[in-house]
UniProtKB/TrEMBL annotation:
Alphabetical keyword list: Cell membrane, Membrane, Transmembrane, Transmembrane helix, Transport
Pfam families (UniProt xref): MFS_3 (PF05977)
The organism of origin for this protein: Metapseudomonas resinovorans (Pseudomonas resinovorans)
Location(s), subcellular: Cell membrane
Residue ranges occupied by any Major facilitator superfamily (MFS) profile domain in the UniProt entry: 33-417
Topological relation to the membrane, as annotated: Multi-pass membrane protein
Name the record gives this protein: MFS transporter
Keyword Transmembrane helix assigned: yes
Keyword flag Transport: yes
CDD domains per the UniProt record, alphabetical: MFS_MefA_like
InterPro entries xref list: MFS_dom, MFS_trans_sf, TM_effector
Main location: membrane
C-alpha cells in the first residue's frame, strides 16, 4: 500500500528555486551513441504503433465485446506491472546493455509469432491477445534497463533533455506510426503490418549491439533477486520522490487509460469512423505530444514541475469530457491534440523526476516501480472502463474517466515534487570499515553498527532535529532497524545504532551514499564535541562464524 506522502520526508522542497542555465533540448544528439540508438528506437516505435493499430482493428472488426477490445491494453500493461521490479533488480546489478538485448530478442520472437499466424490466416482475438502478452513480457525485461541506461549514454547535465527527447521519440512514432499503420492496414492487411514491426526490431537490436561503453566498476557482488526487491521497496518506503511519483502516475494512468482502451471503439462507432480515422486519432494524440515536448521545459520553469503535472491532469480530464460528449470530428481532433500535450507534460515530468532525483544504485528499480504504477493504472483502468462501456456506453465511460481525472488533479495538487536537480544524488565517497579480525561469512549474520556522539546540552534540540532525516537515510539505504539513544548517566553522550542484514549489505549501504546523504551526516557530525570524531563500532552476529565446532 502506498503511504501518505509528506513534503517533509527526505528532500528539501524549495518551491521556486532559481532557474539554472541549461543546455538546449537537442544537445544529447551530439553524443554518437545516443543519436544512433535514438534513431533506431524511432523505427522500433513506429513498428510498435503501427502494430497496435492493426491489432486493435483486428479485434474490433471481429465484433468483439468492448471488454475484449480493452483486454489488448491489459495484455500490454500487465507484464510491466508484474515483472518490471525483477527486471529492475537485474538492471541495477548487471550489464544493462545485455539485458536490453535479451528483452528485445524476446519481443521480436513474439512479433514473429504474431506475423506467422496472421499470414497463415489463423489469427483470432484470443491468439492476438496472447501474442501481445508475449511481446509485452519482453518489454517488461527491456524497459527498466532501457530507461536507466540513458544516464550511461549522456553526461549528467544532459540527462533531463535526453529523457525528454526519448519521450519525443515515442510520441513522434505515436503520431506517425498509427497513420502509417492505418494506411498499411487499408492497403495490404494486418499481416504485413505485423511483419513490418518485426523488421523494425532489427535496427534497434543492431544499435544496442554495437553500443560500447565503459562498464561501472563493481567492487561488491550483485544482489539476489529477492534481496534487490526488498532493497527497492525499502528505498521507496523512505523516499518521498518515488512514492509521490508512483501515487500520481497511478491516478493519472487509471483515468487516462480510458482514451487508449476505448479510442478504437470511439472511432468505429463514430458516424464518420473507419480504420484510417482511428489512425488519425492516434496521430492527433502523438502530434500534440510532439508539440507539447517543446513546451515542457518552459512550463517547468514558469510554474514548476508539480503545478505542470496538476495542470496537465486537469486539462486531460476536460479533454475526456469533450470526447464523452461530442461526435463532431472537428471537436474531437483538437481535443486529442490537447490531450497529447497533457500526456507528455505529465509522463515526461514523472520520468525525469525519477531519472534525475533517484541515485544510480536503485534507479532501474525506481523506474520499474514507476512503470508498475502507471501501467498498473492503465491495466486496471482499461478493464474498468471496458467493463463500464458495456453498461453505460463508450461515451459514458469516457465522461466518467474525465470526472475522475479532474477530481484526482485537485486532490493531489498539494502533494508536490522537488524541482529537478541532479547534483544532490551524485555518488559520495565513504570510508570503508576494516575487516573483522576473525574468520566469518560476510553474507550471513546481522551487523550492529553504533556511532557515539558527544553533544553539548545547549545543542540537544538541534541534534535531535538533525537526526530525523538521518533515520530516513539509514533505512532508505539498507538498514533493517535504526534507533538513537541518550546515555542515562552521561546526558551529553548519544548513541546511534542500526542493524544491517549482513556485512555485505553494510558495505553496500556505505557505497550508496550520495552528496545529499553526506550533507545530512555532516550536519549531525558538526554538532559533536569530543577529542576526536564520533566513535564507530561494528559488531558481527555470532551466526556469521562457525562457533559450533569450538570446544567448550
Amino acid at each position: 500500500m502506498l503511504q501518505s506522502v509528506s513534503p517533509k520526508n527526505d528532500l528539501p522542497l524549495d518551491a521556486e528555486p532559481e532557474a539554472k542555465p541549461h543546455q538546449g533540448l537537442f544537445s544529447p544528439f551530439a553524443i554518437t551513441a545516443f543519436r544512433i540508438i535514438w534513431i533506431a528506437n524511432l523505427f522500433a516505435n513506429l513498428g510498435t504503433w503501427a502494430q497496435s493499430v492493426a491489432a486493435a482493428w483486428v479485434v474490433t472488426e471481429a465484433h468483439a465485446s468492448p471488454l475484449l477490445v480493452a483486454m489488448i491494453q491489459v495484455a500490454s500493461a500487465l507484464p510491466l506491472v508484474l515483472l518490471s521490479i525483477l527486471s529492475g533488480v537485474l538492471a541495477d546489478n548487471h550489464d544493462r546493455r545485455k539485458i536490453m538485448l535479451a528483452g528485445l530478442c524476446f519481443e521480436m520472437s513474439g512479433a514473429i509469432f504474431l506475423s506467422t499466424i496472421a499470414f497463415l490466416g489463423i489469427l483470432d482475438p484470443i491468439l492476438l491477445i496472447i501474442s501481445i502478452l508475449w511481446i509485452s513480457i519482453g518489454g517488461a525485461v527491456t524497459i527498466p534497463a532501457w530507461q536507466a541506461a540513458v544516464s550511461e549514454q549522456v553526461p549528467g547535465e544532459m540527462l533531463g533533455n535526453a529523457v525528454l527527447l526519448n519521450s519525443v521519440n515515442y510520441n513522434v512514432a505515436r503520431a506517425a506510426g498509427p497513420a502509417l499503420g492505418g494506411l498499411m492496414l487499408s492497403a495490404v492487411g494486418p499481416a504485413w503490418v505485423f511483419l513490418f514491426n518485426c523488421l523494425c526490431y532489427l535496427a534497434l537490436i543492431w544499435a544496442i549491439w554495437r553500443w560500447r561503453r565503459e562498464l561501472p566498476v563493481r567492487t561488491l557482488p550483485p544482489e539476489g533477486l529477492m534481496q534487490g526487491v526488498v532493497a527497492a521497496l525499502r528505498f521507496t518506503q523512505y523516499s518521498s520522490v518515488t512514492r509521490l511519483v508512483m501515487l500520481r502516475s497511478f491516478s493519472f494512468g487509471i483515468s487516462a487509460s480510458a482514451v487508449w482502451a476505448l479510442l478504437p471503439l470511439l472511432a468505429h462507432r463514430n458516424p464518420d469512423g473507419d480504420a484510417a480515422v482511428y489512425g488519425y486519432m492516434l496521430g492527433a494524440l502523438g502530434a500534440g505530444a510532439i508539440g507539447g515536448s517543446l513546451l515542457v521545459n518552459r512550463g517547468r520553469l514558469l510554474i514548476g514541475t508539480s503545478r505542470l503535472i496538476s495542470l496537465a491532469g486537469l486539462t486531460f480530464g476536460l479533454v475526456m469530457l469533450v470526447l464523452g460528449t461530442l461526435d463532431s470530428l472537428w471537436a474531437i481532433f483538437p481535443a486529442l491534440l490537447t490531450g497529447g500535450i497533457c500526456w507528455i507534460a505529465a509522463v515526461a515530468s514523472y520520468n525525469s523526476a525519477v531519472q534525475i532525483l533517484v541515485p544510480d544504485w536503485v534507479k532501474a528499480r525506481a523506474l520499474a516501480l514507476y512503470q508498475t504504477a502507471i501501467y498498473g493504472g492503465l491495466a486496471l483502468g482499461s478493464y474498468l472502463w471496458g467493463h463500464l462501456a458495456e453498461s453505460m456506453g463508450v461515451k459514458g465511460a469516457l465522461f466518467s474517466a474525465g470526472v475522475l481525472m479532474i477530481a484526482c488533479a485537485f486532490l493531489l495538487y498539494p502533494r508536490r515534487l522537488p524541482e529537478l536537480d541532479a547534483s544532490s544524488i551524485a555518488h559520495a565517497d565513504s570510508p570503508q570499515p576494516g575487516q573483522p579480525g576473525f574468520a566469518f561469512n560476510p553474507d550471513r549474520g546481522s551487523v550492529l553498527v553504533t556511532i557515539e556522539y558527544r553533544i553539548p546540552q545547549e545543542r540537544t534540540r538541534d541534534f535531535v532535529r538533525a537526526s530525523r532525516p538521518l533515520r530516513r537515510l539509514r533505512l532508505r539505504n539498507g538498514a533493517d532497524r535504526w534507533a538513537l539513544y541518550r546515555d542515562a548517566s552521561e546526558p551529553e553522550l548519544w548513541q546511534e545504532t542500526m542493524v544491517v542484514e549482513n556485512w555485505l549489505q553494510h558495505l553496500r549501504m556505505l557505497d550508496r551514499l550520495t552528496i545529499a546523504d553526506k550533507a545530512i551526516i555532516d550536519n549531525l557530525t558538526m554538532l559533536h564535541r569530543g577529542d576526536g570524531p564520533p566513535r564507530v563500532r561494528h559488531g558481527v552476529s555470532y551466526e556469521s562464524g562457525s562457533y559450533e565446532t569450538l570446544q567448550p
